[in-house]
Specification:
about 400 residues, mainly alpha
Length: about 400
Amino acid sequence: MNRNINLYTWYYAATSFLAWMPVFFLYFSERLSLSEVLQLEAIYYIAVVILEVPSGYFSDRIGRKMTLLIGSIFLCSAIVFYMLGNNFSLLCVGQLLFAAHMAFVSGTNTVFHFESLKSAGVANEYGTREAQVNKWALISGGLGALLGGWLGGFDLVYAYWLSLVVAFGSFVITILFYEPQDGKIDQASGNFLIQLIKSTSFLKNPNIGWLFGLYAVMYVMVHVPYEFYQSYLSLLEHSRLLNYSSAPMMSGVLYAIAMFVGAYSAGQSIKWKNTLGMKPFLFLMLAIMILIIGLMSITLHSYLIVVIMMRSFAWSAVKAPIFEKLTPQIDAGQRATFHSLMSLVSRLGFFALLFGLSLMIPSEGAATWPELSLILKVCLGVGIIGALPLILTSRQRLIK
């Protein structure tokens, strides 16, 4: 299992090197209207929702390595369709393939890491090691963003070419993995419905259920600035409030800085959690997420670029502590399915938000500042409403 442990950091870093991420909204917007771009994003999220739990069940039944391998194939295929995509249909296929990739690796990757550590007799190091893996993945994502933004200044499609090369590297690494020997396969139910019932039964534990809900709210909130910051930068550029670079280059720089800031917070996350306590730490990170959206909704100004750069800080800080608390409490045969359920609910929430927002704006043309401001204010309201029940029930939770 030492091979898995040594290679996993490289694998996660390679799958995180998505150089197109800082320019994808601009790339889509060159070819489609804003309404169609939001529809594409909604299609991605609903596709992940549909595939999420079946992929987790596949992982629990067939194995972690095979699931990750198929996910790598989906990633390479998605990038190819993005590069070919000069219309809605081809880009839609790319979104569906990327959704399949995300569904197959989501949950399975961290479960694969935990079970590899457990097989090697060092499961007690899971939280700390997961934090370090997340740190290096974010550093890789930051480097990809810098290169993708720079290449996007010449042609946005170049960022996809670079991503394809690195994605193929993740496929090669996956081939070298061993299947963790944790006895999980024979613990998974052969009946999908029974497997689903077993997995959801863990939510009866009040601490697990509360963390499940918190994760879903945080997921939606952190993806709001991620989804709209490229439009924000584009509006800054068009209004001549962004004078030093093109939108692709500045987007890449901001995305990279956000990743580097996130890498730092991921590396420190377990330490901060231990110092502050689990609940205060999680609420502080949620408050930061909501505050960023609120500030972005108020005004269009280059000074807020500093705020946008903090968007990955809170999310990167909470993932390892939440997984450290949840993963060992889930039975081996249901681990991937449970993580998939958590991702499903989170993505379904963001899909619903995106779909609702797409109905609020005109079907043609790029977003204006009044439209983007309204969108962000709606998202702010959703975040506050989502946080209230978590705050009201937090006294009953025993999270430490």
